[in-house]
Specification:
The complex is a heterodimer. Chain A contains three helices and five strands; from the N terminus they run βαββββαα. By secondary structure, chain A is of the alpha+beta class. Chain A has one domain: Alpha-Beta Plaits. The longest helix of chain A has 15 residues. Chain A is globular. Chain A starts with a strand and ends with a helix. Helix content of chain B is 33%, strand content 18%. Chain B is built from nine helices and nine strands. The longest helix of chain B is centred in the middle third of the chain and has 20 residues. The radius of gyration of chain B is 21 Å and the shape is globular. Classes of the chains: A alpha+beta, B alpha/beta. At the A-B interface, β4 of A face α7 and α8 of B.
Chain lengths: 120, 298
């Protein structure tokens, strides 16, 4: 059996606290999974004195600002446990595409765990 | 120093209108200039969720009175909003307007300005969600709600014979007028639980440990203080709530509008599966002309 992959896509402001690799490594080490993250700053993002605006309509999805957390595991249960801890700490992604790019099994497990805590 | 009394009720000279007008009279006593807007005199289509407004960068393209109504709202310094409570909540007129308010960016011209809400209702105990829609709408515009009142008015025009209620909203109007003068737009109404909207609608999450304001999404910890229910909300919790102009703007920008890309990415799969449903009970498929059922609707 291959790796189970879950991707959690956080829009700016969705995660309760900032992602740091050292913190993710602690969760990963506890459950024997791999966790990494990648931050994208959208090229249309404009910050003014009053607000930050980014045109996201009609823009290729991968080009909009987001942080993608990737979890890789050989087994379901460690993935489930690490997801539970990660979501408790950072919250879950909000929109329906928040798990896009996951493997089928990885997405199903993520959606189960997300719903345990009422979706967000 | 203009205050707009907004009435979202179909009934002319009904309780909502009387109470809003009384509040405006109070505001005028302290120097404000009052105007009134009857929302039901205008034609509003439902939001179609098309997303073309791009979080308020472009006016709504639907050809009705929405953009005109927005201009009226945005031309003043304060709002006093009144509507009747129907089925525990605000009537559809207000919800229609709120849904279309997705076409308002941040900061809106009303950002930081004071507002107040008056809700006449018929029966005690049937008002639990009365402030939800106005709380979302006014916070979406970045307004500071300084007071909100539920006024029992069982029959049309009941407010006219309720001196206590008239005095209550008169003072509310004065308070809005004073807020304009002094710049103090802090909440002056009855203390609720939520630190943002001051309502008491507490939603218990599935973990059965965490609670949140169902409207504002501010999470906290339930506790008993002196035998009474209380919720501990930290500044950090408040910061992560959704019910502010900036947070609603962010929500539309990142959770709603990229939906077009998601829609594209799943288009083929949906196309494959659609046939089963379009051939089943096709009577009201898009594009079919449905004859009006009643004489009135013709």
């Amino acid at each position: 059996m291959g790796d189970i992959i879950t991707k959690l896509r956080y829009s700016p402001g969705d995660n309760l606290i900032e992602f740091k690799q050292a913190d993710l490594d602690k969760i990963a080490g506890k459950y024997g999974v791999k966790i990494s993250f990648q931050e994208t700053i959208g090229k249309n993002r404009v910050t003014s004195a009053h607000t930050t605006y980014e045109q996201t309509w009609d823009i290729p999805f991968e080009e909009t600002s987001q942080t993608v957390v990737t979890l890789t595991s050989r087994d379901k249960e460690p993935l489930r446990k690490s997801l539970r801890e990660l979501i408790t700490r950072y919250r879950s992604p909000v929109p329906i595409w928040g798990t896009m790019g996951s493997s089928k099994e990885g997405e199903e497990i993520a959606l189960d765990v997300i719903e345990e805590d009422d979706g967000w | 120093m203009k205050i707009l009394g907004v009435v979202a009720s179909h009934r002319y000279q009904g309780n909502s209108e009387v109470l809003v007008k009384e509040a405006l009279m109070g505001a005028e006593e302290v120097g404000a200039k009052a105007e009134i807007l009857r929302m039901t005199n205008y034609y509003l289509e439902p939001c179609t969720g098309c997303g073309r407004c791009q979080s308020g960068r472009i006016p709504c393209h639907i050809k009705d009175d929405f953009n005109h109504l927005l201009e009226r709202w945005f031309s003043v310094d304060a709002i006093i909003l009144g509507f009747p409570c129907y089925f525990l909540a605000a009537p559809g007129t207000l919800k229609l307007f709120l849904d279309r308010a997705v076409a308002v960016g941040h900061p809106s011209p009303l950002n930081g300005k004071p507002a107040a809400v008056i809700v006449p209702y018929g029966n005690r105990g049937f008002t639990a969600y009365a402030f939800v829609q106005p709380n979302i709408l006014l916070h979406k515009f970045g307004m500071n709600i300084i007071d909100q009142a539920l006024i029992q008015s069982g029959a049309p025009g009941d407010a006219l014979i309720n001196d206590k209620a008239l005095e209550r909203v008169h003072n509310m109007g004065k308070a809005v007028g004073m807020a304009l003068k002094t710049g103090d737009t802090t909440f002056k109404g009855e203390k609720g639980l939520c630190p943002v909207c001051h309502d008491r609608l507490i939603h218990v999450l599935k973990d059965m440990k965490t609670v949140e304001c169902g409207t504002c999404g501010v999470r906290g910890k339930l506790r008993l203080v002196g035998g009474k229910i209380d919720v501990l909300f930290t500044e950090e919790d408040i910061h992560h709530g959704r019910n502010s102009s900036e947070q609603w703007f962010r929500h539309h920008m990142y959770h709603v509008e990229p939906g077009k890309e998601y829609f594209r990415s799943t288009k083929e799969l949906r196309k494959e599966r659609r046939g089963k449903y379009s051939s089943y009970l096709p009577k009201e498929e898009k594009g079919m002309v449905v004859e009006p059922v009643t004489k009135e609707s013709k």
